[in-house]
Amino acid sequence: MINIAMVEDDAELAEVLTEYLSKFNIKVTNYEEPFLALSSLKINKFDLIILDLTLPGMDGLDVCKQIITNHDIPIIISSARSDITDKVTALQLGADDYLPKPYDPRELEVRIKTILRRYNISTKIEEKPTKVFIFDEEKKEIRKNGKFIRLTAAEYEVLSLLIKREGFIVSRDDIFENSDLLNSDYDNIGSLAVIINRIRHKIEANPKTPNYLHTIRGMGYKFLQ
């Protein structure tokens, strides 16, 4: 169920909208007093707010500003005020939509679902986990959880190649072919194993049971994060 807070001092309108939206699995809790609504937001979770601008004791734009400052929640302004300045100000403050009164409740229902659909997608993108390892090819730096990893030139070449091919098995021959240093200074399997071991000591909590740099027996290495 969609849970909505409405800040509307017109009790009759609030009742009509509450009854209509309930048909679409939308529960509305109305607050006629803006201060009561602001207090409720501190302890209750809502998916969206419908906010009138003409309210007792506090201008709706000030309410809008407080909500945006203190909460991460979409807002639809529902107002009979026809001044374009109010609309522009509300949207500049961060309101998601502005619906001038009078309007058809069906339009409000559609706008609610459209905004929540967009908001949920946006939230999912923002909450996508950041990668543990960041490889900056231009600066030739590798960081783990933002902390710079001190690597020798050979270690950097091997680890950067594995990170670039994250999720794929990289053969030993592949590593030699893509590394100038290994070709000239470490052109044997034993030396590569030593480098891999040194890298693990720098990036793994327990090098003997690696979480990131895995040996695929008979095939090569795979980097996962």
Give an account of the 3D structure.
This protein is α/β, with parallel strands linked by helices and 225 residues long. It has two domains: 2-126, Response regulator (Rossmann fold), CATH 3.40.50.2300; 133-223, Arc Repressor Mutant, subunit A (Orthogonal Bundle), CATH 1.10.10. Helix content is 45%, strand content 20%. It has nine helices and eleven strands. It has helices at residues 11-22, 34-41, 60-70, 84-93, 105-126, 153-164, 172-177, 180-185, 189-203, and strands at 2-7, 26-31, 48-51, 75-79, 97-100, 133-136, 141-144, 147-148, 169-170, 213-216, 220-223. It has a five-stranded parallel sheet, with helices on both faces. Helix 2 (34-41) packs parallel to helix 3 (60-70) and helix 3 runs parallel beside helix 4. It is elongated, with a radius of gyration of 28 Å. The relative contact order is 0.09.
